[in-house]
Amino acid sequence: MMPFSEFHLHPDLLKGIRELGFTRPTPVQAETIPAAMDGRDLLACAQTGSGKTAAFLLPILHRLMARPRRTTRALVLTPTRELAAQILEDLNALAVHTPLTGAAVYGGVGMGPQEHAFRAGVDVIVATPGRLLDHATRPYAKMGGLEYLVLDEADRMLDMGFLPDIKRILRHIPAHRQTLFFSATMPAPIGALAADLLKHPVTVNLQRRSAPAVGITQAVYPVPQPLKAALLVELLQRGILQQALVFTRTKHRANRLTEHLVRHRIEAARIHGNRSQRQRTEALAGFKDGTYPVLVATDIASRGIDVEALSHVVNFDVPMAPDDYIHRVGRTGRAELTGEAFTFVASEEESDLKAIERAIGRTLPRVTLPDFDYRAAGPQLEVPRGERLAAMRRQRAGGRRGTSGHGGAGGRHPGSGRRPPRRR
Questions:
Q1: Residue 11 half-sphere exposure toward CB, CA atoms < 13 A
Q2: In this structure, which of 189, 251, 287, 417 has its CB flanked by the most CB atoms within 10 Å?
């Protein structure tokens, strides 16, 4: 495969690439960068961990080098805060020897610094759709100079309900532009959106391989549901796991599992949608620098975490969709490195596991941990549904008593039919 120098990138970009230790492009970079450098629209199906961020950043940064500063000319749309922050980090690393600037625009943090980025005219804005729309109607959010649009993880944005927001954003940006469209899958609504957005696109790797990267060793640990937490502690204490990204089904289970690990003197942090942006940023930073050897996450993090040489991903709960499995385990074995993915399977999850095995075309090996007591009692990580509903009814009843005599507004402002939608 050709070296990066064959792409005729700006020397200052090549210097940044060398300092990052990249010598040869990944397959998706080799196929997409030449077309993007020629100014072609691009439709790429690319697996997570394939190096697609550099595939769209490098040609855009190269072409921006010859453009005047202080006008935002490139917009990258992405589904989650974590992925926006990660793309900006990659941009800063690649452009470290250039004058090019970027900013991340997402919810959960103040709008002031983001407004300043718009007013300053940073070269590249990396944004989640909801927060970008918060800015879009303000006079300072000038997007008339945009020449490049990237939709990254387009299928994930569809899953998260962002399609109407994307269509609204398109009304704020120039129709004459280069558009780079990246998606791990191509369901019908995404295909239709791509057809609307792209002009005579170059298509790359359209039929995505429905399997994790070849460098990922996969294994299944059959274990009763109540013993999953104990098994995870044992794997960590024996040194079988050293740095692990652990996925749970719910936010509540992520909280309870993290508390269980900390009680067993294992440094762990958690990341999910109910955590503030500051908490999420601190947890991810601590996981990357080794402060926390374990990061417990819900699927919000499955496409937004890029940790160099991450050794292990653990599916504490079996994902219900095979694609979610592929994206989760794709956090390891990235950029042609190696890694291991362990999946804890209770008897009631076997049908979901079978669906995953059918999708990836193989039966995963079953593993048992020697000298682990599979008959012991374990902690209850999730309050049974009946108990949760009863607690919610008691809470609502208490709230009604607390608001009697106040017009029954329940603490909500009169006339507000619902809470305003959350912005990512």
A1: 0
A2: 287
Alpha carbon distance 295, 247 (integer Å) = 9
With contact defined as beta carbons under 8 Å apart, do 301 and 271 qualify? yes
Q: Give the residue extent of every domain in the chain.
A: 4-204, 216-360
CB atoms within 10 A of CB 104: 25
**Would the pTM of this model clear 0.90, i.e. be above it?**
no
- Distance between CA atoms of 39 and 33, rounded to whole angstroms? 10
Q: ∠29-157-304 over CA atoms, to 5°? A: 60
Joined tokens for residue 262: 């900390």
Q: What is the pLDDT of residues 102-124, one digit of tens each?
A: 999 999 889 999 999 999 999 99
Q: What CATH number labels 216-360?
A: 3.40.50.300
Same fold, 4-204 and 216-360: yes
Closest by CA position to 35, among listed 198, 262, 274, 215? 198
Alpha carbon distance 81, 89 (integer Å):
12
Residues 79, 157: contact at Cβ < 8 Å?
A: yes
Q: Is 332 exposed, middle or buried, given 0-12, 13-18 or 19+ CB atoms closer than 10 A? A: buried
CA 403 to chain centre: 41
| Sign for the pseudo-dihedral over CA of 365, 366, 369, 371 | negative
- What pLDDT, in 10s, does the model give residues 175-187? 999 999 998 777 7
- What pLDDT does 415 receive? 40
Confidence of residue 386 (pLDDT cuts 50, 70, 90): low
Q: How many CB atoms lie within 10 A of CB 339?
A: 23
For residue 385, pLDDT over 60 is answered with no
Q: Which CATH superfamily is domain 4-204 in?
A: P-loop containing nucleotide triphosphate hydrolases (3.40.50.300)
Instruction: Give the residues across from 221 on adjacent strands.
Output: 344
